[in-house]
Amino acid sequence: MEKYIQPFIDVCKNVFKEFLGAELNAERPHFSEKDEVNEWDVSAIIGLTGEARGAVVISMEKTLAMRLTGILTGTSHTQLDEEVIDAIGEIVNIIAGNAKKGLEEAFRLVISLPTIVEGRQHTIQWPHAHARIICIPFTIFENEKFRLSVAIESLQDS
């Protein structure tokens, strides 16, 4: 399992450092329930298909989403507007695309375009009923938190 998760941790740290100039602290990954209610305001989802299927989801509160967008664009945001939604979608797209490269020894994967879910206490519909969802919590800017959730199921073993 660690061989599938470590590329996502490494990529997150690199993406946030390179694009946002921010250091991340990865906390202990843990399993999450499929029907868990999200405490976050916005989630960006990328589907995975090919020799495996699953999804990569980044979730955060709107204040962090607006702050990250401000760093990326140099403009201030006071709500989850289209630019903020696009920026969070692009962040998950970069993470999934780079992690895909790290997983290519195990799987040939295709990633989807990002889908955004917003609203307090939203839920994510995972692509398969038996998904084992790994949640990787991160801390950024001293005390702000977000999480990356990953579910990958090999179709080669099916």
**Global shape:** globular
Examine the coordinates and then state which fold CATH places here, giving the name of the CATH topology.
Chemotaxis protein chec
Indicate the proportion of strand residues: 25-35%
Q: Which stretches are low in confidence, meaning pLDDT under 50 for 5 or more residues running?
A: none
| H/E topology pattern | HEEEEHHEEEE
Which CATH architecture would you pick?
A: 3-Layer(aba) Sandwich
Count the helices. How many? Answer: 3
Structural account:
By secondary structure, the chain is of the alpha+beta class. The protein has a single domain, classed as CheC-like (Chemotaxis protein chec, 3-Layer(aba) Sandwich). The chain contains three helices and eight strands, in the order H-E-E-E-E-H-H-E-E-E-E. Strands 1, 2, 3, 4, 5, 6, 7 and 8 form an eight-stranded antiparallel β-sheet that branches. A hairpin with a 1-residue loop joins strand 3 and strand 4. It is globular, with a radius of gyration of 15 Å. The two termini are 17 Å apart. The mean pLDDT is 87.
Short précis:
The chain is α+β, with helices and mostly antiparallel strands and 158 residues long. It has helices spanning 2-20, 62-73, 82-103, and strands spanning 24-26, 30-32, 42-50, 52-60, 109-111, 115-118, 133-140, 144-154.
